[in-house]
Q: What sequence folds into this?
């Protein structure tokens, strides 16, 4: 029964393909199968996007002791529908001086790659659109395309704020791409594969009550945290939302977008967040595997989406907590803290791989990482003049 | 240590988040159309015309002196004097406005009209739900819409209205006494002559 429930979507797709093949030539089987997977994924993640916009506004409201949206439908559940209608009916303004073609293409260039990145995420047992041998590489390759879109949007708008936002975005995204990938490399070293499906399989199984998730090892925990921070920066989430920076550069690179194009940017940003959170789950939190042995009867996709929602909730929590970084803080954090720590984490992962199992490798790796964290953190804090600021021109 | 502040901050926001569900006092939001806060005594939105008695046309305090029209900084008041007169609260015959319009889309709620009015005829309202679907027609209020009874004024600004009423009553009593004295004193004695000025010293 549990088995059946777990594979219900896979079975349904097979049945549907079989039924469709009665009407179309057999050579189309693969295409049909892929199209069905893509359609499901698009619908599921678009729905999740709608839900997240609401949850985010509600959560932020509660953090600030407000109610959040509660007018449209019961508990404000229909708010995303109202937002959608509003975005669709708004006037689409294009600046006269803008580069029309690039301005038009930029939102598409953002949305298409982030959806492509979802293709390699295993959302459940046997539930992945394509199981590429180099799935992880594919993910990072298409993920890097979003930077192009951001710069296209910022440059083509012919607006000083949007160009500033785009330049910030490029600096930030390229800087944080490095620790993002380096912290993911540790998992590749352990799993010995770039395939996301294989990485999840490595983490399936339990020793006692503890699952074999990578996050439950010293290097995994460090990698997970580094990955999360870098992911927040990649997705332009608070506290790394400098490219948008409502209070300083108004809306950054999408200042000149309105109506549905703006909604597309919004969608792309959130789907990007889901994709990178999904990858964090796949790499460190055991993908679709259950956290405890006796709850394995719960379908695998439920676990994946539960983990995804928890990570999103965490990102919302962080957004409600931290103020925006300054540009120089952002850069020095990336290059002076994240990068060295992720390199040391690579070393720790290597040690973990080759040291004999037992308490010694736990102690050794934990000590190495803790020492690096404290040392790097201290040097980062000491360099900074945390005393009273002196202004050269303002006084 | 690095990151300590972040943990503390997360704990704080987490406490706020959970607290908002368990301690309703934390939520300061007033669910506006259903719940309302009472307007403060000094609240003001746009002017209205006060009338005494039951008939608004008879009781209107405005005498069409047009001071408010002249003083209004954004020039949102438009008054046309009527040719017929009507008695005011003392009983003296006064002009009355034939047309009295206030354009709410122009009015800036400065209260200068209230301050300059010598007859306490124009006061500030607290009504704020004035949105309409017709921005030209429905935001230009005419005399009939502007006229509101003195009781309404008492309801929205009790202290201020009581003070105005007391002053008007005193003036009325004084005027009454004066007319009576005039009527009585015409035959008895002429008004005492002005005191001669003291000779300038020096």
A:
């Amino acid at each position: 029964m549990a088995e059946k429930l777990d594979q219900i979507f896979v079975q349904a797709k097979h049945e549907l393909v079989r039924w469709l093949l009665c009407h179309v030539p057999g050579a189309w089987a693969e295409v049909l199968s892929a199209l069905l997977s893509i359609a499901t994924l698009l619908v599921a993640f678009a729905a999740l996007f709608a839900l997240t916009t609401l949850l985010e506004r509600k959560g932020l409201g509660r953090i600030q002791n407000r109610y959040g949206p509660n007018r449209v439908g019961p508990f404000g559940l229909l708010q995303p529908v109202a937002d959608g209608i509003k975005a669709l009916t708004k006037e689409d303004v294009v600046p006269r001086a803008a580069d029309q073609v690039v301005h038009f293409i930029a939102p598409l260039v953002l949305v298409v790659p982030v959806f492509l990145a979802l293709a390699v995420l295993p959302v459940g047992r046997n539930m992945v659109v394509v199981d590429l041998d180099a799935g992880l590489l594919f993910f990072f390759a298409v993920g890097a395309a979003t930077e192009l879109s951001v710069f296209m949007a910022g440059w083509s708008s012919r607006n000083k704020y949007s160009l500033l936002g785009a330049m910030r975005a490029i600096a930030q995204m390229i800087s944080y791409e490095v620790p993002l990938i380096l912290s993911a490399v540790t998992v590749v070293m352990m799993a010995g594969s770039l395939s996301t499906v294989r990485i999840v399989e490595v983490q399936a199984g339990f020793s006692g009550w503890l699952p074999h998730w990578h996050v439950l090892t010293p290097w995994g925990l460090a990698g997970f945290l580094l990955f999360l921070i870098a992911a927040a920066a990649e997705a332009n989430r608070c506290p790394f939302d400098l490219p948008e920076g409502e209070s300083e550069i108004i809306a950054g690179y999408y200042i000149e977008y309105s109506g549905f194009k703006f909604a597309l940017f919004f969608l792309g940003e959130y789907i990007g967040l889901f994709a990178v959170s999904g990858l964090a789950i796949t790499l460190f939190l055991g993908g679709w595997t259950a956290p405890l042995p006796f709850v394995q009867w719960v379908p695998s996709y439920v676990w994946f989406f539960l983990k995804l929602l928890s990570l999103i909730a965490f990102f919302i929590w962080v957004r409600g907590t931290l103020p925006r970084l300054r540009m120089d803080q952002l850069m020095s954090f990336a290059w002076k803290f994240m990068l060295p720590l992720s390199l040391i984490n690579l070393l720790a992962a290597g040690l973990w791989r080759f040291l004999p199992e037992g308490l010694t490798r736990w102690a050794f790796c934990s000590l190495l990482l803790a020492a690096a964290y404290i040392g790097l953190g201290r040097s980062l804090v000491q360099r900074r003049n945390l005393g009273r600021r002196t202004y050269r021109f303002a006084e | 240590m690095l990151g300590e502040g972040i943990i503390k901050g997360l704990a704080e926001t987490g406490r706020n988040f959970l607290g908002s569900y368990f301690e309703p006092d934390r939520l300061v939001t007033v669910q506006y159309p259903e719940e309302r806060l009472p307007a403060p005594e000094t609240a003001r939105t746009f002017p209205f015309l006060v009338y005494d008695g039951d008939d608004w046309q008879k009781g209107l305090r405005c005498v069409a002196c047009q001071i408010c029209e002249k003083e209004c900084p954004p020039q949102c008041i438009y008054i046309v004097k009527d040719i017929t007169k009507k008695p005011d609260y003392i009983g003296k015959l006064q002009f009355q406005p034939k047309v009295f319009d206030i354009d709410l889309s122009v009015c800036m709620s400065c209260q200068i009209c209230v301050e300059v009015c010598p007859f306490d005829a124009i006061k500030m309202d607290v009504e704020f739900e004035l949105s309409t679907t017709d921005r030209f027609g429905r935001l230009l209020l005419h005399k009939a819409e502007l006229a509101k009874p003195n009781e309404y004024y008492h309801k929205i600004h009790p202290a201020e209205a009581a003070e105005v009423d007391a002053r008007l009553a005193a003036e009325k009593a004084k005027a009454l006494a004066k007319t009576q004295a005039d009527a009585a004193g015409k035959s008895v004695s002429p008004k005492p002559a002005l005191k001669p000025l003291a000779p300038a010293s020096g």
Observations:
- The radius of gyration of chain A is 23 Å.
- Chain A has a mean pLDDT of 85.
- The beta strands of chain A are 206-207, 210-211.
